[in-house]
Amino acid sequence: MKFKKILLKLSGEALMGEQQFGIDPTRLAVYAKEIKQAYDQGVKMAIVIGGGNIFRGLSGASEGMDRVQGDYMGMLATVINSMALQGALEKLGISTKLLGGLEIDPIAERMSRKRANDYLEEGKLVIISGGTGNPFFTTDTASALRAVEIEADVILKGTRVDGIYDKDPEKYADAIKYQSLGFQEAYEKKLAIMDLTAFTLCQENDLPIYVFNMNKNGELNRVVMGEEVGTLVH
């Protein structure tokens, strides 16, 4: 097995499936099965999921809403998605703990490095909701922060495409895929992997980012087991 401790970053939009918003129960169940397949390999796993399928703070601010208020609404959206994922995983028999940048009793305990690592050592799957708990930060940044805190081997970023390309492969048939690339090269090429704050946090802490297609059956498990199926940024 290549990775022993991972931080899996999922987008909230991924949970919409074919819907325009909200959570598609079918997509949620598929993701839970994919996660269980990798978890059953014995990997220690924490998950951060976005909230864009429910509410996006930045777009709310562009419509005239107060940015800070909008960002807190976005954090609460991540809590809803995290609870949905927790329920789907528990249904498959996985023991989980929901932590949060925002403490919401009795739903989510306050995130701390020690608490998260203690639960991971107990063999529990840890879901970390509520972003960083602060406005002006994305769930990309939250996932980078949490990965550094728990000393993860890697951030696995599950997307709709099978890696990083020189241009959008959904729009351009001649897009070229990178097997791996350095942080500096990715920055110079202006490749949209994570937002700059998150990307810098990963670079400064030597935390690699692995981008892969979460919607392809068995792909998460293949990444965990060390197969080269996506793109590694290191």
Features:
two-stranded antiparallel ribbon, alpha/beta, 8 helices, 234 residues, single chain
Report on this structure.
This protein is α/β, with parallel strands linked by helices. It has a single domain, classed as 3-Layer(aba) Sandwich (Carbamate kinase). It is built from eight helices and eleven strands. The chain has helices at residues 25-39, 57-62, 67-91, 113-121, 139-149, 183-188, 196-204, 219-224, and strands at 5-10, 44-49, 96-100, 109-110, 125-129, 154-159, 164-165, 177-178, 180-181, 209-213, 231-233. 42% of the residues are buried.
Write the layout of secondary structure elements.
Layout: E1 5-10, H1 25-39, E2 44-49, H2 57-62, H3 67-91, E3 96-100, E4 109-110, H4 113-121, E5 125-129, H5 139-149, E6 154-159, E7 164-165, E8 177-178, E9 180-181, H6 183-188, H7 196-204, E10 209-213, H8 219-224, E11 231-233
Parallel strand pairs: 1-2, 1-6, 2-5, 3-4, 3-5, 6-10, 9-11
Antiparallel strand pairs: 7-8, 10-11
Helix pairs in contact: 1-3, 5-7
